Amino acid sequence: MRLLIVDDDARIRDGLAKAIEWKKHGLTLLPPAASAEEALARFAEERPDIVLTDIEMTGMTGLEMASRIKRGYPRTEIVVLSGYDQFAYMQRAIREGVSDYILKTSGPDEIVRVALNARRRLLGKEGPGASSAGPEQLLRSGALEDLLFHGLSPERIAKEELEKLFPEEDSLPGSGGRRLQVVIVSLRQPGVRMSAGFSHFTIRSRLRERFAAVTLRYGKRTLAVLNGRGEEAARALRETLAELEAQLGCRLFVAAGCAVDRPEALADSLREAEAASRYEWLMAESGFAAYEEVRERRGIDPACSKEEELALVQVLKSGNAAELREMANRLCERIRSDPEATPESLHAYVQALLTAGYRWLENTASRTGRQAPRGRMRLPAPEELLAGPERTLTERLEAIMNEYLELGSEEHPYIAEAVAYVKENLGRNVTLQQVASHIHTNPNYLSDLFRRETGSTYLEFVTKERMEKAKAMLAGTGAKIKEIARSVGYEDIKYFTGLFKRHTGLTPSEYRSHY
């Protein structure tokens, strides 16, 4: 395992190099670097496993260097040398991926202890008793990482490293049918018997044992390159998945790229496995998504139907959060069961449904003369939605429902919209049933609501509104009384005149003369 010391102070640099017998502790000391820039320039070629660096140096700082190293070579262990006055840097150091720190005044024993801890962390990533030889050590030297993440061709990687990565002769290009395939394994539900870390160690061990796989940690997931034949390997992988779930007491999800016969094509297989991993929610029941299968899916219709919009509006108006959650779950489950569903079409459909909800909310606010909703339309990003469609959709719809309820906080929201509809249609003979249908509620419920919220029956309310409009037209326009009667829904002028007098004590002509 290779160690690189980086410090612009020659005394410290040389002292660390000469005061400790690094080889005795299983570490190969690379020539120390006098600056962060020098270390980065040499990094790709020398590939140190552990970097021991000062924080403050002339030019690029140790933390800036650490950040760059971690972006390109995330498995590298970085230990920083700190002075007594530099502890303020440590919080940032943690963010940049620094593994440990040590004071510059520390003695050789303490420095060795920290370096060996870093070495153990590298070995420990594959669990107790991991060997420092074989494929896992080659991973630390970067051969597989170069193939997967840095796009290097096999010609630029030592032949012996390739042979150790893929040890069986027929796994190499031109062999008798062996295929290499990238798979990504996720813990869908935490194990009840083991921690996440130990669960992944068990997964990696089993994959190496069963498939001669090369494995590594991949964020919070396990990445493996399987070495096997097409259908036979796929069947064995599913069996192994079931065995691991039973052993670990958890649910797993495997995303598989297409099998390839050339090491340089592994980067393509990785991209395909990543694409398949986006199906984790859609294919949760099977626990397995193969890119060669899901790439044929055409996607669902991203537009929501008129019937779905009407059903959504009715639930939003009800103010019933439980019914809303049930609706969101039902919609999501219907999409999940569709064999053509894709992550992209799921996201597009949810966007369309939420947009319909927001549009209805804005129209309702406008019709009732209320202030527009405070919150801006928030549509979920794809990754946010795919992490939990039911939860995300429910949260967004509940936000719309709450905005709607606030619109009618002074009176029941159904009444606010019913009143607005009645006022817009005073010239028509609009029945209670028609109003109830317009606002998607039951006529009997609306009738009771009118009596409770306004103190009047529906007919009393409509008549009152008609008389108020007639009074305004008589006082403010020169329209004939017959025209006014028709504009408020009465064809019979005698009936209108008698009704107007009962409400005002004056005939329409007398009212106009008086006002």
Descriptive notes:
There is one protein chain. The chain folds into 4 domains: 2-124, Rossmann fold, CATH 3.40.50; 136-294, Alpha-Beta Plaits (2-Layer Sandwich); 306-407, no CATH class; 414-514, Orthogonal Bundle (Arc Repressor Mutant, subunit A). It is 54% helix and 11% strand. It is built from 24 helices and 10 strands. It has helices at 10-18, 36-46, 62-72, 90-95, 108-124, 135-141, 143-149, 159-165, 196-211, 230-248, 266-277, 291-294, 306-318, 321-336, 343-367, 382-386, 389-407, 413-424, 432-438, 443-454, 458-476, 481-487, 493-504, 508-514; strands at 2-6, 28-29, 50-54, 77-82, 100-103, 179-189, 214-218, 221-228, 251-256, 288-290.
Topology (SSEs and partners):
Layout: E1 2-6, H1 10-18, E2 28-29, H2 36-46, E3 50-54, H3 62-72, E4 77-82, H4 90-95, E5 100-103, H5 108-124, H6 135-141, H7 143-149, H8 159-165, E6 179-189, H9 196-211, E7 214-218, E8 221-228, H10 230-248, E9 251-256, H11 266-277, E10 288-290, H12 291-294, H13 306-318, H14 321-336, H15 343-367, H16 382-386, H17 389-407, H18 413-424, H19 432-438, H20 443-454, H21 458-476, H22 481-487, H23 493-504, H24 508-514
Parallel strand pairs: 1-2, 1-3, 3-4, 4-5, 9-10
Antiparallel strand pairs: 6-8, 6-9, 7-8
What is the name of the CATH architecture of the largest domain?
A: 2-Layer Sandwich
CATH superfamily heading of the largest domain? Reverse transcriptase/Diguanylate cyclase domain
Strand neighbour order, sheet with most strands: 2-1-3-4-5
Instruction: Give the averaged pLDDT, no decimals.
Output: 82
CATH topology of the largest domain: Alpha-Beta Plaits
Quote the beta fraction. Answer: 5-15%
Give the % helix: 40-55%
Strand-pairing-aware structural class: alpha/beta
Overall geometric form = elongated
Domain Response regulatory: 2-119
Domain HTH araC/xylS-type: 416-514
GO molecular function: DNA-binding transcription factor activity; sequence-specific DNA binding
InterPro entries: CdaR_GGDEF, CheY-like_superfamily, Homeodomain-like_sf, HTH_AraC, HTH_AraC-typ_CS, Sig_transdc_resp-reg_receiver, Tscrpt_reg_AraC-type_HTH
